[in-house]
Design a protein that fits this description.
Layout (H helix, E strand, L loop, with lengths): L10 H12 L6 H26 L20 H4 L12 E5 L2 E4 L4 E2 L4 E5 L2 E5 L1 H5 L30 E5 L9 H9 L3 E5 L1 H15 L4 E5 L12
Parallel strand pairs: 6-7, 6-8
Antiparallel strand pairs: 1-2, 2-3, 4-5, 4-8
Protein name: Alkaline phosphatase
GO cellular component, one term: mitochondrial inner membrane
GO biological process, one term: mitochondrial respiratory chain complex I assembly
Length: 227
C-alpha cells in the first residue's frame, strides 16, 4: 500500500497565508465619502456664516428715515493742541506801544520784547544801533550785532528766531541775516501781528526752548518810534 506523502508548506508560504488572512477589508467608497462629508461640512458652514456676517448691513426700520444733513463737525476735537497749555510768554495782545503776555506781564512805553527760553526781556534795538532808523536805504530791516548780544550768553540756543518788524513786513538785510545764521539759528521774518501768532503756535508745539521771538511794537514808525 502506497503511503500518501504530505508536503508541509514552507515558512514563506505560511507568512503569505497569514498576511492574506489578517489583512482587513477596505472600507467601501460610500463609507469613506460619508466620513469625509461629515468632517468637512462644519468647516464649510462656518466659513459661509462668517462671510455672511462680514457683509451684513445694520438693519433699519421701515418707518425710519435717513438723516437729512450730516452731523455737525466739532472743530474743537480736531485741535491736537487744544489741551496743551499755552506758554506763559505767549503774546495775548499786540498793542500800539507794547505787548500783553499770557503771564499777565504788560510791556509798554514803545518797548519791544525778546522772548527767549520762557523769559521776557525789554528789547530796544535802536539803542544798540544809536538811531531810531531801523530800515536802511534799500528798505531792509537792519540791526547791529549788539541787538542780539543776549544770544552770545545763551547755550543751547533756540533753533528758530521769529522777528516781528512792526506793522508791515519787509526784507531782512543780508548782513543781519548772516549774523543770526552764525549764531546757529534759523530766521523767520514777519510783521509783528503774524510773528506773535507764529510764536504762540510754535512755542506751544515745540517748546519755548526751541523757539524765540524778537518783536517790535505794531505802532513803530521808523525814525520816530512807537511812543
Amino acid at each position: 500500500m502506497s503511503s500518501r506523502s504530505l508536503i508541509r508548506p514552507c515558512s514563506a508560504q505560511r507568512a503569505v497565508c497569514q498576511a492574506l488572512v489578517q489583512t482587513p477589508r477596505p472600507r467601501s467608497a460610500t463609507t469613506v465619502f460619508r466620513a469625509t462629508t461629515s468632517t468637512v461640512s462644519p468647516h464649510s458652514q462656518a466659513s459661509t456664516s462668517s462671510r455672511r456676517l462680514f457683509h451684513t448691513l445694520p438693519s433699519r426700520r421701515k418707518d425710519q428715515q435717513p438723516p437729512a444733513h450730516p452731523p455737525p463737525t466739532d472743530f474743537a476735537e480736531l485741535d491736537v493742541l487744544g489741551n496743551t497749555p499755552a506758554p506763559s510768554t505767549s503774546v495775548d495782545v499786540c498793542m500800539y506801544d507794547g505787548f500783553g503776555l499770557n503771564s499777565g506781564i504788560t510791556v509798554t512805553g514803545g518797548n519791544g520784547v525778546l522772548l527767549v527760553d520762557g523769559e521776557v526781556f525789554n528789547w530796544r534795538p535802536w539803542e544798540a544801533k544809536g538811531s531810531m532808523n531801523l530800515v536802511n536805504k534799500k528798505g531792509q530791516f537792519e540791526l547791529p550785532p549788539k541787538a542780539f548780544a543776549l544770544f552770545d550768553l545763551l547755550w543751547p540756543r533756540p533753533d528758530l528766531l521769529i522777528i516781528g518788524v512792526g506793522p508791515s513786513i519787509m526784507p531782512l538785510a543780508p548782513e543781519t541775516r548772516r549774523l543770526i545764521s552764525e549764531l546757529g539759528m534759523q530766521i523767520e521774518i514777519l510783521d509783528t501781528r503774524n510773528a506773535a501768532a507764529q510764536f504762540n503756535l510754535l512755542a506751544t508745539e515745540r517748546g519755548v526752548s526751541n523757539v524765540a521771538a524778537a518783536l517790535i511794537p505794531i505802532g513803530w514808525k521808523d525814525g520816530v518810534g512807537a511812543e
